[in-house]
Structures are given as C-alpha cells and as structure tokens.
Write a structure and sequence with these properties.
The protein has 17 helices and 13 strands. The protein has about 425 residues and is an alpha/beta fold. A 6-stranded mixed sheet has the order 3-2-1-4-5-13, sandwiched between helices. It has a 4-stranded antiparallel sheet with strand order 6-9-11-7, sandwiched between helices. It has a 3-stranded antiparallel sheet with strand order 10-8-12. It is globular, with a radius of gyration of 22 Å.
C-alpha cells in the first residue's frame, strides 16, 4: 500500500477503506508517512469530504494510535462530558460534583487551556496543592471511592490526533466537519467512558459561530460515539455571550462554588442542570429529564454536591478549605469597575473579545510556555438585554498590572454594544441530539 495512491484516490473522490485509513494513521504516527503527504491528504479530505464510515474508521484509528484507558475496574456506568469550549465555561467544576453526588461515576481526562482562558486543569489549580498528575491507579480508585476524578491528558492518548491537528492548523484544513468530529471523539473514545455527553457551543465565543454548523457537528459526533458503541448525547448551547458572570480562573471557581450553594447565575445553573440530566440518564440514575433535574436540585439543596467537590479536591491533593471559604482562592491586587459610556440596553457582547480581555490581563496562554495568573479576570455586571445607565458598572476588572488593566478595559468597552431598544432574548439551549437521532 502506498500513501501516493491513497492521496490520489481521495483527491478523485474515492472512498477510503478501513484498512487504508488504519495504514495511513499508523504510518503517520510512526513517522513513516511525511508531513507533506499527510498535508496533501488533509487537503483532499477538505475538498472531497468523508462519508460516515470513513469518519468512523478515522476516529477509531486515531483513538487506537496510543493508549486506550481501561475503566473496567470502575463499578457501574462511567460517564464523561466534553465541551467544545467558550468564554466563562467553568461547567465541569460544578457539573461533575453534582452528577457524582447523585451516584453516577465521572471519569474525566482534561487538558490545559491554550487561548483566552485556562482549561479545567488550570482552574482547579486555584486550589492550593491540587494536581491532575495522578497515576492511573489513583484515578481509578478515586472514581470508585468518591465517584469523580479528573486526570491530565497523557501524551499517549490519541497521539495521532495531536500530530494531525498541528499539521491541519498550519495547512488551512481545520475547518472540515469529519476532521473536527474525529479529532474530538478520538480522545473521548480513548478515555474509556461508557457514555458521553457533549456540550457543543455556538455563537461569537465558540468555535462554531453559526448555529447550523454547531448542529451539524453535534450530529456528526453523536453518530460517531453511538457507532463506536458509546451512548452519546449532545446539547447545543449559546456562547454568544460569556457563560455566567465570571471570566478568569479563580473567579470562575468561585462562581462554580456559588452555583453548588444554589446561588449561581441563572444561565450557568440551567446549563449544568441540562447537561447533568443527560449524564444521569446515561448513567442509569434517572429515566426522565424531570426526574434527573429533581435529583440534581436535591443534591445541591442538601449540600451533597458542594461536599463532593471538597472530597474531590482533597483526594487530588488540594486544600478543601477553599471550597467552604472561597476568599482563600487567589485574589488580584487591583479591582476596578468599568463604567458604561451611555444609557441603554446591552444588545450585543462580542464574546471572544471578552476572552481576549482575560488573556491580556494574564488569565490565558498565548503560547504553551506562558504562565497563567490565576487571580485575574472580569466579573460582568450587565449582560445581553440588561439596561444600564451612563456611569453604571458594566463589569468589574481584576488585575495585577496597571498597563494590562488599561489594555483590557479599552478592549472590553469595544466589545459591548448599547442601544435604545431592548433586544429579543436568545435561548440558552438551542437543541439536544439524543442517541437514537
């Protein structure tokens, strides 16, 4: 078998077999197929597309290119959750303890953030001593014992995807539905969960800016998961403005804690309840969304969900006192309000620009080597549809550097549009794709 022949076949609109795709991925991962040939193949795929079978074969080949995590030692159904990412997306911090408190096992692998804000791991490291650098044995024991563990993604998990994505990123071949879906799902399948709940974002702060593209991706990924034998759900949610009010690592942790105390923002709480419901249904803990919501609400009301977060933080080396005393989390030295320039209604927030404000403050990474300042970020005071008077605060900015603060303030104000007429509200949940669809 020759890579040249496979490139020509796909270039001419042919269908690649499972054997051909496996040969290609194994050869590329091992360094036997050079970047220039794989670049040509990715461009051929970009223009010719892949059918359902090809996409599944590609996903499975990438999933099997490294370690496949074996979770069979964990009793019961193991459920994982994945978000396509956004601004203020601290969902895993509140959602996983809520679900675990209801009796569903959550075994999750996460990465660090590269972009405007930190990833789940960065946010959790706001707890002094917390680490995701735990052994596989500890990971499995923690899930069995307390129902939740989050481990850092290893280099041996779907290494083909990491190598392939780096190539796509510099050859303008990222934006293809089969390639995006297989990239995400190969890592989820390699992580070993029995069921997967996906949070697919859409809007100005999401990878998928258009709603129809988000639905297409959600359908593609649920199809892949179910065809691979994993019960997979997808929730399409709004990311046309930041989720909740907090943007920035320790600030988002505080908001997640408030949510577990029943005092969280309405939109963030609703997203946790929606995703959590399908995680409980997938885990066999509830039959209907109504029943699942009641169980999640009860776990929060009784304090079980907050206690579960503390248990989880302590199990992974963190100081659980900060769960009950969030003032112990990292705090910025400069806190200032950003006044509104005029009266009116907030009609638009350029969501990705708010993320860049956090990055400018030091809350994200511009390169893999960048150090994150866990204490900086923003607390929004006004969101879409809210009325604001001139001089009233639009947001509170948390910084440790005056020049960074001024850069972020200027960018923040440019991201807000204030008009005379109140805009129509947009739904948070755009739709749900169930396993049978």
């Amino acid at each position: 078998m020759r890579m040249y022949d496979l490139i020509m076949k796909k270039r001419n609109g042919g269908i690649l077999s499972e054997e051909e795709i496996t040969f290609m991925i194994q050869g590329f991962t091992a360094g036997k197929i050079p970047d220039y040939q794989m670049s040509a193949m990715m461009m051929a795929v970009y223009f010719q597309g892949m059918n359902e079978e090809e996409t599944l074969h590609l996903t499975m080949a990438m999933a099997h290119s490294g370690d496949m995590l074996d979770l069979s030692q964990i009793a019961g159904v193991k459920v994982d959750k994945h978000s396509t990412g956004g601004v203020g997306d601290k969902t895993s911090l509140a959602l996983t303890p809520m679900v675990a408190a209801c009796g569903v096992k959550v075994a999750k692998m996460s990465g660090r953030g590269l972009g405007h804000t930190g990833g789940t791991i960065d946010k959790l490291e706001s707890f002094t001593g917390f680490t995701t650098g735990i052994s596989e044995e500890t990971f499995l024991n923690n899930v069995n014992r307390i129902g939740i563990a989050i481990m850092g993604q290893t280099a041996d998990l779907a290494p083909a995807d990491k190598k392939l994505y780096a190539l796509r990123d510099v050859t303008a071949t990222v934006d293809n539905m089969s390639l995006i879906a297989s990239s995400i799902m190969s890592k989820k399948l390699a992580s070993g969960a029995d069921a997967i709940v996906l949070d697919v974002k859409t809007g100005s702060g999401a990878f998928m800016k258009k709603e129809e593209d988000a639905f297409a991706l959600a359908k593609e990924m649920t199809k892949l998961g179910n065809n691979a034998g994993r019960r997979t759900y997808a929730v399409i949610s709004d990311m046309d403005q930041p989720l909740g009010f907090a943007v920035g690592n320790a600030l988002e942790v505080k908001e997640a804690i408030a949510t577990l105390q029943g005092r969280g923002p309405e939109d963030f709480t609703e997203l946790c309840m929606t995703l959590g419901s399908y995680m409980l249904i997938a885990g066999g803990c509830a039959e209907t969304e109504k029943e699942a919501r009641e169980k999640l609400a009860a776990a929060v009301e009784r304090g079980d969900a907050l206690a579960k977060l503390a248990e989880f933080v302590e199990a992974q080396g963190g100081d659980k006192k900060a769960v009950f005393h969030p003032e112990l989390l990292p705090q910025a030295s400069i806190i200032e309000e950003i006044p509104a320039p005029r009266d009116g209604y907030v009609s638009r927030i350029q969501c990705d620009e708010i993320g860049i404000c956090s990055l400018l403050l030091g809350g994200g990474r511009e390169t893999k080597e960048s150090e994150i300042d866990l204490s900086v970020g923003l607390i929004l005071r006004k969101k879409k549809g809210d009325y604001v008077k001139k001089g009233e605060s639009l947001a509170q900015i948390h910084a440790n550097d005056r020049s960074r603060l001024e850069s972020a303030r200027e960018r923040f104000l440019a991201a807000y549009t204030i008009v005379e007429q109140k805009p129509e509200p947009e739904p948070l949940i755009k739709g749900v794709i169930l396993p049978k669809q």
